[in-house]
Amino acid sequence: MTELTQGFAALGVNPLIIEALDEMGFEEPSPIQAAAIPLLLEGKDLVGQAQTGTGKTAAFAIPLLQRLDPEEPRPQVLVLAPTRELALQVADEFGKIGKRLRVRELAVYGGQPIERQIKALRAGVSVVIGTPGRIMDHLERRTLKLDQIRAFVLDEADEMLSMGFIEDIEEIIGHLPAERQTICFSATMPEPILRITERYTRTPARISLGGRGIAAPPAIDQAYFEIRERDKVEALTRIVDHEAISRAIVFCRTKRECDELATALQARGYLAEAIHGDLNQVQRNRVLARFKEGQVELLIATDVAARGLDVENVTHVINYDIAQSPESHVHRIGRTGRIGREGMAFTLIHPREFRHLKLIERATQARIQRRSVPTATDVAERALDLLGERIDSLVTGGAGQESRFMDLAARLLEEHEPDRLVAALVAAMAENRGAAGPETGRLGSGPVPEGHDFPNTGAEPGYVRLFMNIGARHRVTPADFVRTIARKADISGGLIGAIDIYDDFTFVEVPKEVARAVLDAMEHASIQGRGIHAEPARPGH
Ligand code: AMP
Q1: Domains 3-208 and 463-536 share a fold
Q2: Which atom in ligand 1 lies closest to the alpha carbon of residue 50?
Q3: Any idea which of 100-114, 123-137, 175-189, 504-518 has the lowest mean pLDDT?
Q4: Which distant-in-sequence residues (6+ apart) come within 8 Å of 179 by Cβ?
Q5: By three-state DSSP, how is residue 344 classified?
Q6: Is the dihedral of CA 180, 181, 182, 185 positive or negative?
Q7: Predicted pLDDT at 450
Q8: Ligand 1, atom 8: nearest CA belongs to which residue?
Q9: Does residue 152 line the site of ligand 1, with CB under 6 A?
Q10: pLDDT value of residue 212
Q11: Which of these ranges, 48-52, 90-94, 106-110, has the smallest mean pLDDT?
Q12: Other C-beta atoms lying within 10 Å of the C-beta of residue 6
């Protein structure tokens, strides 16, 4: 058990489950879990108002798993869920939390061959999670026995109501033993659901989230983006590029997700690092120092790790995963816009989390505007704008005033139309900085011609894989490479491709157009105080 999962221990959760939660990357109970787990462990009935995104599934899965009788071969827990998708998710969560208890769980839903489910039920399962229609099917065929059910959960009851399942639900309840624990979770409590909870629960405890008002700080501009799970990383990188974000805290739900996201971002060339409860004090301080110095631009954090962080001038807070409660949302976004400055807070949500977002919006009396994820073209246009700004500041700053540049400029101006000349120079700069448009950038990258200058180094097409004689043993991180290469070779960090760090050496992929410049620049570079030798990798590595 890590120090941080003690929150679960204090609720009375058993060590085998805590180990599993730790493995899942949970650091502390969510508010709904803190409220529900002790009650459910006592066997109480519960009516909870909570939606996806709050951790409601684990709030009932943890205590129900803990109360299972391992000797009983017949189903002891029945969960009704409105859709196949939700049934599968709930089953997955039971499976992970119960990993060390050797519990068998089964999702039964329409659309899957019923024979397979019958076989699985016959083999013995402790927890059945099903959609009402398919559960009715099994009851009619007598392939599901409910006489040993000790706990019954109605998940997303209002959804089931609006899908017309109310009669099925009542019929299913009629098959359950009277002596049981009954739990109902619903985002809203319409009359028919209230009636069901009154009729079928016994003096239930009631919990709801976000009843109290907690105002969000007014100087923070908030927006949300609705995206599918698998598009999240891509969406995040586009938002970061488009907004030219260079100092943000990105919140994830679990330690695991923090690590995975940091790695995914590093591989795409972002200066990102994770901070969470598994880091020791030294590692934590190191990451923080690097964030403060700007060597890390995106700090990927859990709520626990971000608590008490003393960092200033954070321009953006990004909720990569939505906060589990309005309080925690306010806490998170309070990390930006300090000392009278405007801050921005972005929240990425799955469509299923929309209701939870609305609840946060209401409870915090804030306006969270909908935005669409920038397209690759938007990002490229924005990169060009930024390039324009950089050129403006170079000119006003008096760059290139030495006579050798001025002489060349005069000659070029004589030979070419000025606008064509400037356009060509801008295009060349854009190429170097990854701002040349969606065709050449990493986002939505089209085919890139194979390199001729370098032998095959085993890199992605269009890239050259470079070997560098420094690795994990020297405590280097991908961000070290990105930063050093970007600075020394004067290219955008976003251009750098995959970085594979081994114990003694590292492979870094860079676009072939800049590979020579990177090799030359690295001859005079050092990382962590060590000089670097770089050379094209040999294929097969
Ligand atoms: P739910 O609201 O039950 O749909 O859960 C949303 C997501 O939060 C799921 O991916 C859960 O695995 C995750 N989750 C639940 N409880 C916690 C927790 N205490 N810490 C971190 N993540 C959690």
Answers
A1: no
A2: 2
A3: 504-518
A4: none
A5: strand
A6: negative
A7: 38
A8: 55
A9: no
A10: 62
A11: 48-52
A12: 12
Q: Which of 392, 458, 456 is nearest to 429 (CA)?
A: 392
In this prediction, residue 5 carries a pLDDT of 57
Residue nearest (by alpha carbon) to ligand 1 atom 9: 55
Residue closest by Cα to atom 15 of ligand 1: 55
Q: Per-residue pLDDT averaged across 320-343, rounded?
A: 87
- Residue 57 alpha carbon, nearest atom of ligand 1: 3
Q: Which residues contact 339 (CB under 8 A, 6 or more apart)?
A: 312
More confident residue, 433 or 193: 193
pLDDT of residue 318: 98
Q: Is 253 in the pocket of ligand 1 (CB under 6 A)?
A: yes
How are strands ordered across the β-sheet holding 272-275? Answer: 272-275, 298-301, 248-251, 316-319, 343-349, 220-226, 368-371
In this predicted structure, what is the pLDDT of residue 541? 47
**Can you identify the CATH homologous superfamily of domain 463-536?**
RRM (RNA recognition motif) domain (3.30.70.330)
- Cα separation, 453 vs 50, in Å, equals 60
Q: Where are the domains of the chain?
A: 3-208, 220-370, 378-418, 463-536
Question: Distance, CA 56 to ligand 1 centroid (Å)?
Answer: 7
| Statement: residue 449 has pLDDT above 60 | no
Residue type, 216: A
For ligand 1, whether the C-beta of 302 sits within 6 Å is no
DSSP for 457-520, please give it: -SPSTTEEEEEES--GGGT--HHHHHHHHHHHHT--GGG---EEE-SS-EEEEEEHHHHHHHHH
Looking at the predicted structure, is the pLDDT value of residue 195 above 80? yes
CA distance 389 to 113: 61
Name the DSSP class of 231. G
Place of tokens 């024979």: 115
With beta carbons less than 8 A apart as the criterion, state whether 479 and 272 touch: yes
Tens digits of residue pLDDT in 52-89: 999 999 999 999 999 999 889 899 999 999 999 999 99
Mean pLDDT of 342-359: 93
Q: Is the CB of 534 under 6 A from ligand 1?
A: no
Instruction: Name the H helices within 314-353.
Output: 326-333
Helix axes 354-363, 326-333, angle to 10 degrees: 70
Minimal-distance CA residue to ligand 1 atom 1: 55
Q: Confirm if 295 and 477 have CB atoms less than 8 A apart.
A: no
- Please, what CATH class does the domain formed by 220-370 belong to? alpha beta
Q: Look at residue 386 and give its three-state secondary structure.
A: helix
CATH of 3-208, one of 3.40.50.300, 3.40.50.410, 1.10.3630.10, 3.90.1150.10: 3.40.50.300
Distance 53 CA to ligand 1 centre (A): 6
pLDDT, tens only, 227-284: 998 899 999 999 999 999 989 999 999 999 999 999 999 888 899 999 998 999 899 9
